[in-house]
Amino acid sequence: MPPPSLPAAQDQAASAVRRAGKGKKVHPLPVPDGAAMGEEKPAATTRRPAADWLTPAGVAGILARHPLPALFACGLLLFMAVEYTIPMIPPAAPPLDLGFVATAAMHAAIDARPWLNSLLAALNTVFVAMQAAYILWAILVEQRPRAAIATLMMFTCRGLLGCSTQLPLPAEFLGSPMDFPVGNVSFFLFYSGHVAGAVIASLDMRRVGRYRLAGLYDALNLAQVVRLLACRGHYTIDLAVGVGAGLLFDMLAAKYLESKNIETRCCSNCQKALVSQKLTS
């Protein structure tokens, strides 16, 4: 039973409200549908119907916002048609490689000049040594193991694939004792370890801000691609997949380091920059 003072206070408040509102018309507040029954009205959504993107305006909007996926979609349709119409190379015929066709003149030039072939091979071997030296410097001196781990993964996978599917050496291959591997011993074609190693080194350089050096390595890698095509040391697909392999194994090395909770250390200049940034902030 409530105390006597509570009903008296309630009556006084009710009478005060009646006196204040006397002579005035009071409009009740609108009650939402279903509120009296304890139901909540669902919030209005602004999602467009699923079929809107099929309209000309929707397709134009997709092309404007996402041109790259749209280009790949056109490529898919194109090569679906090509796949069912292009004639395949007969088993007895040599492989068709458009990279070989594009470098036919350079191939004839180095074929007629063995000294030029050996010079280009020697320069290419120097570039491979530069890749290895940089990756070793990164892990031994700067204590950043990502590039080294990616290189180990890359060459191991390359060896497995090279043993699993052995491609024939091109009939026009121009070997040189100055090439790497020396004397062309143990020649795996798929994929190009030369190209993949250069990509791994270039990615590592960009991570620590060595953009000019990375650009130099990219330019040398492109020259390496042309030289390998001209001397028939690799098929075009080996070189293209070599680029993808470098990117892939660099990411896999990062995932491995993250799983081990290992933070890759930067060079001393990067560490000084980070310290100064923390002090200023």
Automatic annotation (TrEMBL):
UniProt-annotated stretches for the region Disordered: 1-49
Q: Is-annotated flag, keyword Transmembrane helix? A: yes
Keyword set includes Membrane: yes
| Entry keywords, A to Z | Membrane, Transmembrane, Transmembrane helix
What sequence ranges are listed for the domain AtPDCT1/2 transmembrane? 96-255
Transmembrane domains' residue ranges: 70-89, 119-140, 147-169, 181-203
Name of the protein in its database record: AtPDCT1/2 transmembrane domain-containing protein
